[in-house]
Amino acid sequence: MAQRKTILILGGGHAGISLSKRLCSQLNPEKYTVLLINTRPFSIWYPAMVRIVTKYDSEIEGRAYLPYDKMFKEGMGKVVVGEVCSIRKNEDMEVGGKVVLKTGEEICFDVLVLAMGSIRRGPFSFGNTLEEMETQIREQRKAVKAARRIVLFGGGAVAIEYAGEIKDAYPRIPAKFRDMVESDLRARGVGFMLGDVVESFTKTSVTCRSGKEVTADIVIQCNGSQPNTQILHLLDPKTLTSSGHVRVTPHLQLSDHRDIFALGDIIDYPEQKQAGKVHDQAAIVANNISCFLEGIDKGFREYRGSYEILVLTNGKNGGSSYFGLLGGWSFGAGKSRNLLIPFARRLVGLLD
């Protein structure tokens, strides 16, 4: 029997999981094997973490950590826990190569998929073990509980949802879309400083470009994340934009490396970076990998973007949504109640 070809996926977040599931359902297991490499033995469902780092909640405690052990049927795929330190292409062949783990282990690939996601900041910058994470979460909960004045800097979804969770957990704490979300949060006592930029910060204060300094009992960094793509500088710096995103063709393929595909937060594509975009991207990449492996050039599909949908929680019972038009309370509240944890658990084969 001919040796099976390996599709190697770097990153075990929502993008990597969604793609690996699709590939395992589409490819012949006698001809191909899917390997997924992640630095943790589990995935983190980040939409739930704003609540988890704020206060203990028995309904979701421990359920946002998604182990991989039930994700693949036997023989259809495998998860490797490790940290990739370099990517090496085959010098004597047009395609294929290997990745080198921090342990020195080398894993060969015929097709490589980049799905490393983003590097999180602030209270969401977790360690790689469950013990480290639980320690960080306990410390963050303790700090929030003790604080009477909290500054969240960053004006995106994370800061907005974090403010709602804090007001749910600790209503005593004083504290958009656009006007509607801002109005909802102002009604709950959350203050805003708009039109300024944080230049520096400590654990208890922020200094703005205008010179204004704001003090608090705790400062929480919520100003976005950065693509987790540093390793690609070693492979080919030309694959990255100045912001660190991966340049891809409409086939979600690297133009100079046709055996490497990318999806998720790391790609350079003009749309919001959201888990909701991954479904369509994974379908495109899975199809195109199949065509690449089978030599069917005319079967490649192009990614044309997804609808912009934004659903923001505001504590456990409120929320706002954007779907072309400003949405209402009921759409946002659906996410607020369970933070989509049941969906995430089903994706990795957890049926509870």
Features:
352 residues, 3-stranded antiparallel sheet, 9 helices, single chain, alpha/beta
Q: Major beta sheet, specifics?
A: 6 strands, mixed
Q: Compute the number of strand runs.
A: 21
Spatial gap, N to C terminus: 39 Å
How big a fraction of the residues is strand? Answer: 15-25%
The helicity comes to 25-40%
Give the structural class. alpha/beta
Tell me which oligomeric state these chains represent.
Answer: single chain
- Rounded to the nearest angstrom, the radius of gyration is 21 Å
Strand line-up of the largest beta sheet = 5-2-1-9-18-17
Give the SSE order as H and E letters.
Answer: EHEEHEEEEEEEHEHHEEEEEHEEHEEEHH
Unreliable stretches (pLDDT < 50, length at least 5) are: 172-176, 325-331
Report the principal-axis shape: globular
Please, how many helices?
9
Mean pLDDT: 86
Describe this entry's structure for a reader.
With 352 residues, the protein is an alpha/beta fold. It contains nine helices and 21 strands. It has helices spanning 14-26, 49-52, 130-146, 157-169, 179-187, 232-235, 278-294, 329-338, 341-347; strands at residues 5-10, 32-38, 42-44, 65-67, 78-81, 84-89, 97-101, 106-109, 111-114, 118-119, 150-153, 198-201, 205-208, 213-215, 218-221, 226-227, 253-254, 257-262, 309-313, 319-323, 325-326. A six-stranded mixed sheet has the order 5-2-1-9-18-17, with helices on one face. Strands 6-7-8 form a three-stranded antiparallel sheet. A three-stranded antiparallel sheet has the order 12-13-14, with no helix packed on it. A hairpin with a 7-residue loop joins strand 6 and strand 7. Helix 1 (14-26) packs across helix 7 (278-294). The relative contact order is 0.16. The model is unreliable at 172-176 and 325-331 (pLDDT under 50).
